[in-house]
Amino acid sequence: MSVVTVYRHFRSLSDLMPACTLSFITSVTPMTEAEAVAAFAQLAGPVEKLSKLIREDCACYERGHQWFRVVIRERDVIPELDEMASSAEATLATLVAAALDGTQAPPELHSALCAVIHFPFWRALIAAGLPEAAAPDVMLDLARSLLARHRIA
Question: Structural domain of residue 52, as residue ranges?
Answer without folding.
Answer: 28-149
